[in-house]
Amino acid sequence: MRRCMPVKIPDNLPAAGILESENIFVMSETRAANQDIRPMKVLILNLMPNKIETETQLLRLLGNTPLQVDVDLLRIHDKESKHTSIDHMNNFYRDFKAISHKNYDGLIITGAPLGQIEFEEVTYWDHIREIIDWSQRHVTSVLFLCWAAHAALYHLYGLNRKLLKTKRAGVFLHQRTSQHLPLLRGFDDEFLAPHSRFAQMDIDELKAHPGLQVLTESDEAGAYMVLSSNSRNLFVMGHPEYQKLTLKDEYFRDLGAGLKPEIPQNYFRNDDPEQEPVARWYGHGSLLVSNWLNYYVYQLTPYNLDDMSAITPWEEAELP
C-alpha cells in the first residue's frame, strides 16, 4: 500500500509533535539521513509574526503529499521577534547568506502584517526584492501567499494593489476561470477560501497582462490564484494554510487592540463571534499545495538541482 511520504524537518522543531498527533507523517533529519531517495527541497520564507503557528500550518499542507520534502526555514532579518523566541529563530531559521548559493525545488513566501504600508516603506523591502530576484534563477517554482503575492506582482510586473477602506476578512466563494490546468485538477467549479488583508489587486489589470493568467476568482474577494505564463510563479491572494481558529484569533486580537474590526464574513456560525467558526476550506487548501508541489515542482524540477537550466516550462513538459 502506498503511503504519504514525510516532510523532513529539523530535530526538535515544535511543529513535529503537533503534526504527529494529527497522523501527519514527518521525519527528523536524523532519521532522514538513512533514506536513499531524492527528496524535494523546499524553502519557506516566513514573514508572519507567530513563526511557529505558520510553520505548522504550512508543514501540515506539505505533509499531505506522496513526496518526501526537505524543508529549510528562512528569516528576513536577525532582529528579535516579538512573538517567537530568539532561541527558536537561531535554532531553526537560516539567514539568506547561508542559502543564497543553493538551488531549491520550491519556495513558499508567506503573508506579512504589512497591508497598510507602502512597499517602499517596508524596512526590509530591498531584501524582499533581492530574494524574489534570486528565486527566479535558483528555484523551480515559487508560491507567494497574500502580502507576498501582492509584493511580487508589484516587483516583477509593476502591478500595484489598491488599499481597502476596511480589512477584507472571512471565507469567500470562488470560481474557476480556467479549465484543464494541472494546478486545478480535482477542484470543484466553486470552492471556499479564507482571506485576511487590507488590499486587493485590480483583477482587470491582472487579466490584461500577457505574462499572467487568472485561474480562480471571487465576486467578493477578487482574484485568488494567478499563474505566471512560464509557470514559475504562483500568486495566491488568500490564506489556504489557515486553520479553523486563525481568523477568530486575528479578529479578537484586533478587537483587543482597539481597531474595531468587522466580523469575518461567512466564518462564525450565524455570523456570531461568540459561536464557533466553521472550517470549510481544508480540502481546497490541501489540494492547492499538493497540485503545486506535484505538477509545478516535482514534475518540472531537474534531478540535479545544480542544473536550473534544465527546468522545462509546463507548456513543453510531457506529464501525465
Automatic annotation (TrEMBL):
Give the encoding gene's name.
metA
A single GO CC term, please? cytoplasm
| Pathway participation | Amino-acid biosynthesis; L-methionine biosynthesis via de novo pathway; O-succinyl-L-homoserine from L-homoserine: step 1/1
Which terms does the record give in the GO molecular function aspect? homoserine O-acetyltransferase activity; homoserine O-succinyltransferase activity
Which residues catalyse the reaction? C146, H239, E241
Q: Which NCBIfam families match?
A: metA
Q: Which CDD domains match?
A: GATase1_HTS (cd03131)
Q: What keywords sit in the KW lines?
A: Acyltransferase, Amino-acid biosynthesis, Cytoplasm, Methionine biosynthesis, Transferase
* Keyword Cell division on entry: no
Q: What is this protein's function?
A: Transfers a succinyl group from succinyl-CoA to L-homoserine, forming succinyl-L-homoserine.
Subcellular locations according to the entry: Cytoplasm
Top-tier EC class: transferase
Q: Which Pfam families match?
A: HTS (PF04204)
- This protein is called Homoserine O-succinyltransferase
Q: Where is this site: Important for substrate specificity?
A: S196
Q: Give one GO biological process term.
A: L-methionine biosynthetic process from homoserine via O-succinyl-L-homoserine and cystathionine
Instruction: Give the InterPro entries listed for this entry.
Output: Class_I_gatase-like (IPR029062), HST_MetA (IPR005697), MetA_family (IPR033752)
Write down the Gene3D superfamilies for this protein, in alphabetical order: 3.40.50.880
Kindly state which reaction or reactions the protein catalyses.
Answer: L-homoserine + succinyl-CoA = O-succinyl-L-homoserine + CoA
Taxonomic source organism: Shewanella violacea (strain JCM 10179 / CIP 106290 / LMG 19151 / DSS12)
For the ligand (substrate), the binding residues are: K167, S196, R253
Q: Which family does it belong to?
A: Belongs to the MetA family.
* Enzyme Commission number(s): 2.3.1.46
- Give the positions of the site Important for acyl-CoA specificity: G115
